[in-house]
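User: Please predict the structure of the protein below. I'd like the answer in structure-token form so I can feed it into my own downstream comparison script.

Assistant: Understood. Taking the following sequence of 935 residues as input:
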Amino acid sequence: MRRVLTFLFAVLLVAPGAALAQISTEAAPVAELVERVDIPYERFTLDNGLTVVVHEDRKAPVVAVSIWYNVGSKDEPRGQTGFAHLFEHLMFAGSENAPGSYFNYVRGMGATDLNGTTWFDRTNYFQTVPTPALEQALYLESDRMGHLLGAVSQERLDNQRGVVQNEKRQGDNQPYGLVYYQMLEDLFPEGHPYRHSTIGSMADLDAASMDDVRQWFTDNYGPNNAVLVLAGDIDTATARTLVERYFGGIPAGPVNTPAQADVPTLDAPVSRVMQDRVANVRLYRTWIVPGMLDDDAIPLSVAGSVLGGLASSRLDNELVRGDQTATSVSASMQAFQRVGMFSVTVNVKPGEDADAVSQRLDAIMADFIANGPTAEEVQRVATNQVANRIYGLEQVGGFGGKATALAEGQLYAGNPSFYREQLEAYASVTPQAVTAAMQRWLTRPVWSMRVEPGEREPYVEAARDPSGAAPSAAPQDYTPTPRNPMPQIAQVENLNFPDIQRATLSNGLEVVYARAETVPAVRVAVEFDAGLAADPATALGTQRLMLNLLTEGTENLNSTELAEARERLGASINAGSSLDRTVVSLGAVSPNLEPSLDLLADVVMNPAFDPAEVERLRATQLASIASELTQPGGLGGRVTPVVLFGEDHPYGRPYSGLGDPDTVRAITRDDLVNFHQTWIRPDNARIYVTADVPLQTLVPMLEARFGSWAAPSTPRGVKDFDVAIPDPQPRVVLVNRPQSPQSIIFGGTILPITGQDDTLVLEAANEVLGASFLSRVNTELREVRGWSYGASASVSNREHQTPYLFQAPVQADRTGDSIAAMIAQFDAFLTENGVSEEELVRTINGRTRQLAGQFETSNAVLAAMRSNALYGRPDNYWEMVAGRYNAMTAAEMDAAARAVIDPSRFVWVVVGDAEVVRPQLEQLGLPIEEVTLGE
């Protein structure tokens, strides 16, 4: 950051409110938006068959490294379900020339957007690294492509088997978590490649052996079966040199032909009923349809959006807003390479006749399939698809950035520009094409399911002694190939955070701005000093209901009209809150900025609080509370803050902000209006913006819409943080959730600090203890024991009193052992076994080198601007931290953690099956308090 510029807007340039008198939603043509989407690239292929795609983007000194293997769960042999994903985990366990965890190396280089994923058609690995670390990243990726087998051991296989099985438990433990298995089994015939889930079965995971590992790697992980994308601060000539250097010596593998698959049709409709520990009936309808390369893929995607994807969808308007027999709906086309799944879900409103809703759903769908969408509906879908792609292309890597778009196109279609073909197809698709596609594919027999509240079937657990754990003989024909040492990382330059500029509207409303020119998009956050802490203590849930109503109708536009207006512009408007702040945010494509700002201002200043909408959303919120009481995370989120802060403290509220049923039922329209007038007002607000539009251009737009907004005569809200926090009573609070294959451990303590204190050293220390993948806590529970998919402990900054919170989903039969292991790690770190030299170097390197990637996107910059203000930090705070990190010592980090974290004050909250876990918890020697919430 080189300077801070401030503008005072003292003269009214445009008549205030004029834009709101007649709101315009005239949007730029979809074709014009498509022209704004472009990812130039060059492509080459090494002699060993590795395909390389390079995109140059110099906006930040980072490069996305994304490698996609043309193998996924559809390619697994019978009896090896889940193996592609299990092998993905093993790829992070170290290679011959980079022993130990892969994360040790990439954390030290400051990688961001780091992960690996497996799906039906592919397995991918990606990270965004600072430019000086690119060579080391390519060395690591090439080492696990060409030099893996000598490093994989039975111990690592057994450990990652346990981790993956806990990942499976984590998903299965959710309400409706078992539906997908039944859906695939019914929709695909025996032997079809897509018939089983990517996570696989417990029995097949148990059976995975070292011989399977070696064969899978040999058959599928050759360079000729992969696509490597480099996107960011690099050119093709440099890329070619580096890729040839590190990957060129890897021999080609066997010719891999991914499994072919037809599009099956059911012989007759299939109707299922399943019981689960859920709060409401959910209805499903699914068809198998063609995959992403078929001409019908885009028309079917549009059909799904019009039916149940848009906020103004047919099902929303008919079942949620109209009949009010459903609390939420969805419909979408999920496209894979060979096939797709067209799915519809309806959450039936509690108390409604599920049979009647089911019949009404089928009637709406039959009419839609017969008559199709309107041209205007199709246009709104296309605009939103293009706008979402524009937002995503700000990022070079990650799950949805440029590298992903290029890799998907090359892997699936042989064309890195396939994303462009898809957008052009959205822009040109007609209602007739959508109707024809639906009539071809959605008139065939349908798969239906109804999930009802009730007890689950017994859960199929993993074996105590998996057959795949039997050691096998090492291969006799494999000899590790030596290679040059790993390259070192050159100096990484300090972060140059965007310049922050300020303006003041004529009513005193401050605008905080940063320029972001990577994509034609603008992000606006109208932030209020409120948050969950402002929710009335005697009427919890008021703010959540008020915020939900903001985006469901204004004095100028009803709920449907407002949804249609947003979709027409490709704009997203959301209202939400953290504990300390409430925000109404806008994402807009720049060609549609002014009408999008009209909608934002209307939502913020002119909520209708229509009585009928109040009652509809009240019922939805009550249903959400009931649903939360069935979710393990929801239960923990309701209990933990109350246990730590006490129910009278502003932070002692459930994290969701949903409130309690009795209080939500009692909230009146006047309560909502009063809350809005008390907290959502210009003298309690600040506007944050990142945009490709200059501030001088933007300020008159904001002035025209917000400059005349006057605060009401009633007093502004004040939060009371003088409420005493109860003294901690170390214990285990057991929240009973029967039939849970996994427990979730929550809890923590209140630290003697606030978010406005200097926590930099403490947070660096806690990265070693609990807040990173390589932390002591996660390493112990996941990488050593294999009892958890992931565990963490964090310094959870608040504007006022800051808690130390932990969360660890663990297999149910290891709940007590997991708490004991966590206690041992905390005790050791906070006494004699503090930060090691290796951990110090890794933490400092990671935290300094990651800064450019950390603030690559405008969303990240916007969040930093807001958090700097919340915690009283200067605008250039993030430019100053590298020097401070580099000066840190292990002793300072140890002292910072030991001064405030006291395990003897911890309260543990366990959500799990009390019958299974209570006997384990009794072995810990802590008092146990058992509670049951809801049904």
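That's the full token string. The radius of gyration is 28 Å.
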